[in-house]
Design a protein that fits this description.
It is a single chain. This protein has 73 residues and is α+β, with helices and mostly antiparallel strands. 29% of the residues lie in helices and 25% in strands. The longest helix is centred in the last third of the chain and has 17 residues. The radius of gyration is 25 Å and the shape is elongated.
């Protein structure tokens, strides 16, 4: 195996998230900056928001009911 063809491996590469969490991983880069991690991602924290504030489902059901009533006339 050629040694020059392989990238340098850093077993203690530091990952810094915008939320302030710092942890280490193995990487070919010495330091990584990420925007989101498991500490602040909504899926992992359980703070997911459902976007049905405008009642989109109810509006859709009303439109389909209206459309089917017009077809039956």
């Amino acid at each position: 195996m050629k040694g020059a063809a392989q990238p340098t491996y850093f077993p203690e590469a530091k990952v810094t998230c915008v939320c302030g969490r710092v942890f280490t991983v193995g990487s070919t880069k010495e330091a990584l900056a990420v925007e989101i991690c498991s500490n602040c991602h909504p899926f992992y924290t359980g703070n997911e928001k459902l976007l049905d504030a405008a009642g989109r489902v109810e509006k859709f059901k009303a439109r389909t009911a209206k459309a089917t009533s017009k077809k039956s006339k």
